[in-house]
Amino acid sequence: MASLIKTTSKRTGKPRYSVQVNIGERNRPTFPLGQLTKKQAEAAKGHIENLLSTKRSGSILDGPTADWLARIDNSLRDRLAKYELCAPRVATKPQTAVPKLGAFIDGYISKRSEELKPRTIINLKVARGHLVEFFSVDRDLDSITPGDADDFRRSLIAKGLEENTVRRTCGRAKQFFRDAVRRRVIDESPFADMKATSVTANRKRDYFVTSEEADAMLEACPDTQWKLIIALSRYGGLRCPSEHLALTWGDVDWKRKRIRVRSPKTAHHDGHEERIMPLFPQLQPYLEAAWQELIDSEDFTPEAQPTSELPVITRYRDSNSNLRTQLLRIIKRAGLVAWPKLFQNMRATRATELAKEHPGHVAATWLGHSTKVADKHTIGR
């Protein structure tokens, strides 16, 4: 049925073995075994004979031969399969190294750096910091379990972070791991089933900034630009600083008494790149003062650049300008006590006023948010 053939290697002088099998119809293929001991070669011959016998009888392959078949190299296995003495070996996908936690998140942020706003990138990096602090930067991504994710959330609470900060951080962690699942890096996200990762309104931090308080701040401002920043926030309801800095004089329509507000925050939503709102009477004097200051300036050269392209806020545009710190100084100078979410509550106060004076959908459109969002952030009085 099968014959063991011995030859000698010309290069090494060592014996080499092969097995010749009589399959039938003058078909006697040879299966090289390589440099083996005679005992190993005879064992291989016996296994090949078992393969041939199993093929002819249709019986089940015995355990020892099946184990041998699983261990042999690909060249011998492929040759046996060629003559239908065994099934072809299934190619296995090479194992790729599971990325480390820190490196994966860094890659995620880097890939999205062109589409994300600077503040969003900062927030993602803060979430990354919490994750690598708890799990370590070199933790294998697939080794983190849902139980580990729960422990991570508890660690944030133990740090004394506010509920919404915990929710945001876990939401961003969920975002990272969801991306890993989509890229087939891991099979499932340990944060997938975690609830309470969306932010809820914290009514304890609501504060209605009265017109008297606004007037006191305006009186305490060091210059016209700061007066305009506060007026745009409190009486215009603009998002600070993004919408303030995007505003140009071409956006101010004095004749029709309206303002075009371009919103970087909602620009990625179709139809929400900009909005039109009234030039409110409370806001108009501060825009007029800033305009007069501009045209009276020695640096005013409309021939060098169209006036419509000039920014309304010319100072405090640098990324190092900490508007919150400067506003705290103004509040102190005005004899007031600072409130939570300084700029957000000025915008929310204006939203509350407008919702009381106008139809809800109209007020929401002017401020660039949905009525659902408006209801969530309206300050009760």
TrEMBL record:
Q: Where is the Tyr recombinase domain?
A: 204-381
CDD domains per UniProt: DNA_BRE_C
Q: Where is the Core-binding (CB) domain?
A: 99-181
Keyword DNA-binding attributed = yes
Q: Which GO terms describe its molecular function?
A: DNA binding
InterPro entries linked to this entry: CB, DNA_brk_join_enz, Integrase-like_cat_sf, Integrase_catalytic, Integrase_recombinase_N, SAM-like_dom, Tyrosine_recombinase_XerCD
The record's annotation in Pfam families points to: Phage_int_SAM_5, Phage_integrase
PROSITE patterns tied to this protein:
CB, TYR_RECOMBINASE
Q: Which GO terms describe its biological process?
A: DNA integration; DNA recombination
List the keywords (alphabetical).
DNA integration, DNA recombination, DNA-binding
> What family is this?
Belongs to the 'phage' integrase family.
Protein's name in the database: Phage integrase family protein
Please give the organism: Aeoliella mucimassa
